[in-house]
Specification:
The complex is a heterodimer of chains A (231) and B (361). Chain A is built from 7 helices and 12 strands. Chain A is of the alpha/beta class. Helix content of chain B is 46%, strand content 17%. In chain B, 38% of the residues are buried. Chain B is built from 15 helices and 12 strands. Chain B is an alpha+beta fold. Chain B has a 9-stranded mixed sheet with strand order 1-5-6-12-11-10-7-9-8, sandwiched between helices. In chain B, strands 2-4-3 form a 3-stranded antiparallel sheet. The chains are: A alpha/beta (231), B alpha+beta (361). At the A-B interface, helix 4, helix 5 and strand 9 of A face helix 8, helix 9 and helix 10 of B.
């Protein structure tokens, strides 16, 4: 048996995750060709590295196909209802910081708070005959946030990428998306609402609460957590 | 837990009782067009209803309740007055509590009758109360019409009243608006700066469908609002008192009559409540011990705009209401393309009723 650790398969998140483990004496490497998702672990026995998309890691943790996984708080909370019961947070990793925020065109000088957004949405619906559209891929988080705030007369439209461009393209009037520096927002002439922070997220190491483990697996996990300074 | 067959048998028994009270049985499709429900409830309905779709008809929802399709059917082809009953599954997404059913049987009774709304309210409540009496439930009642009348009668701008009316069913936003309009919460600094003409955002490029003219228009509205007098302390105190009324029906009427001195606009609504309580009394309901709560029904029952009620199992706080209902005159107008008719009704959950009987047996 073996403990399965899921890590994002590409880019900065993968590199920084590798670096975080390396700093704790565990070497994770991608092997084979550039395109092959094969991987290797050195420094601890019976730990298997699985490379996959960050967006799929929450689901695989909840299904018990992974024992451990690295992915963002945002993805865990969006994809897993009652996430606390399915996964346990072991450690925030100190990178991949990003905030899920609500943004509107900067020239909307009259809109600075959720209060304003709600009033503007009401006027927008009366004028245009449909609800003010907010582009996002975080439907559940955004809907719950707006419901708690009592914002009405909006509609969520799905946007899986280049979300900040949807206002200019007239497929939405506002956006809810992840930002780390706000640079993309500014470049697209958008601004944050002053009370529009929906969630603070960063790359985090999670443990599945449902994945099955043998006695040997428990031993491996204990060793690993000790090496990572988490017990 | 009762079996499905037992639940359906109980549903049939209740439906037969409603038929004996004069209701015509009706059926509605399980798949409902999503547009209409989204239009009525907004995006929140997606958290509560299952959405599905096909390429031809677009988005459809698994029926989250019967009221909307029954009202539609009545407004399209119904004769007056009318009484309907139905029974069948409704479907509710559950994202927070696994123990709540996502599919369950409802049996309902709806009355469309112009003659005497107080008598119709009493008819529905007394019928429910009688059928539920073996279970020893606690009844809660309220009246959304009181708060609506109070808002309509406030001595303030129409725009503020419209904003408050729009959020009657969202108590937190309603409270925030009220605090703003009465000056209890000062305007944010950014607002003051904007009205003084020094917002850094005004010159940013215009993008998207909402135009610069619409922005300017709303700034003008904000300017007018800033110049309008705050809602008076007297009215605010009376509104607070109104929202806090929680008494048995006769005492509630007394308190509300006192509050009507400062909020004369609620007088008609208080008279309607009195007439309803008399009608309930005439039907044998123990009104002396009937609970009345002015804030009841503001969070879950967004189409109700008058009398509201619910029946609860007191020893089982884990259960949702066993039955609930209310008056929805405005909904008939929204779905009636100009026509409207006073309407009141409610639903019961036979599955929960059997579960309670098993528990006490």
């Amino acid at each position: 048996m073996t403990i399965k650790l899921g890590v994002p398969s590409k880019g900065r998140l993968m590199e920084k995750t590798f670096a975080w483990f390396a700093a704790r004496g565990i070497t994770l490497t991608r092997t084979g060709s550039e395109r092959e998702y094969a991987a290797e672990v050195e420094g601890i026995d019976d730990l298997t590295l699985v490379l996959l998309s960050a967006g799929e890691i929450p689901r695989d943790l909840a299904a018990g196909r992974l024992h451990l996984g690295v992915t963002g708080t945002d993805l865990v909370q969006e994809k897993l209802p009652r996430w606390e019961q399915q996964v346990q947070q072991l450690a925030p990793l100190g990178f991949g910081q990003a905030d899920l925020i609500l943004a509107v065109p900067k020239f909307w000088a009259d809109v600075d708070t959720l209060d304003d957004l709600d009033a503007a949405a009401s006027a927008f619906r009366a004028r245009h005959g449909f609800r003010l559209r907010i582009a996002t891929k975080y439907h559940r988080l955004v809907r719950e946030f707006l419901r708690d705030a009592g914002v009405a007369d909006y509609a969520l439209v799905d946007s899986q990428g280049a979300t900040e461009g949807s206002v200019k393209n007239e497929t939405a009037e506002a956006v809810a998306d992840i930002t780390s520096t706000g640079e993309t927002l500014r470049a697209n002439h958008l601004k944050l609402l002053s009370d529009g922070l929906i969630l603070r997220s960063q790359a985090t190491l999670w443990q599945s609460r449902v994945a099955e483990k043998s006695g040997a697996d428990n031993h491996t996990l204990k060793q690993l957590l000790k090496r990572l300074d988490l017990v | 837990m009762p079996s499905r067959a037992q639940t359906l048998a109980e549903a049939a028994r209740l439906r037969a009782a409603f038929e004996a009270a004069g209701a015509v049985p009706v059926e509605t499709p399980v798949l409902q067009p999503a547009d209409l429900l989204l239009d009525l409830y907004g995006e929140d309905i997606r958290a509560r209803a299952y959405v599905t779709s096909d390429a031809l008809r677009g988005e459809q929802m698994l029926r989250p309740d019967f009221t909307v399709p029954v009202v539609q059917m009545h407004m399209a082809e119904g004769a007056e007055p009318a009484r309907y009953t139905y029974s069948g599954e409704v479907f509710r997404r559950q994202e927070h509590d696994e123990d709540r059913a996502n599919e369950y049987v409802q049996v309902g009774y709806e009355v469309f009758d112009r003659a005497d709304p107080a008598a119709s309210d009493a008819e529905v409540f007394a019928l429910f109360s009688g059928l539920l009496s073996p279970l020893g439930l606690r009844a809660a009642t309220g009246d959304i019409g009181l708060l609506m009348a109070a808002v309509a009668g406030l001595n303030t701008t129409d725009r503020r009243k419209t904003a408050l009316m729009r959020h009657i069913w969202r108590p937190r936003r309603f409270r925030a608006l009220l605090d703003r309009f009465s000056g209890r919460t000062p305007p944010p600094a950014t607002r003051t700066a904007l009205l003084n003409g020094d917002s850094p955002d005004l010159d940013a490029p215009e993008i998207g469908l909402r135009s610069r003219a619409e922005v300017a228009e709303r700034i003008e509205v904000l300017r007018e609002d800033a110049a309008a007098a705050p809602i008076s302390n007297t009215e605010m105190t009376a509104l607070d008192a109104l929202l806090e009324v929680r008494e048995t029906a006769p005492f509630a009427i007394q308190q509300l009559s006192d509050i009507a001195v400062d909020l004369p606009a609620i007088r008609t609504a208080v008279e309607r409540l009195e007439a309803r309580v008399e009608a309930l009394d005439a039907r044998g309901v123990d009104v002396e011990n009937l609970d009345f709560e002015a804030s009841y029904g503001r969070t879950q029952m967004e189409y109700y705009d008058g009398f509201v009620f619910g029946f609860y199992a007191e020893g089982r706080p884990d259960l949702p209401p066993i039955a609930s209902g209310g008056r929805y005159d405005a909904l008939t107008q929204r779905l009636g393309q100009g026509a409207r008719i006073p309407a009141v009704g409610g639903v019961m959950r036979p599955g929960l009723m059997l579960e309670l009987q098993e528990g006490t047996a």
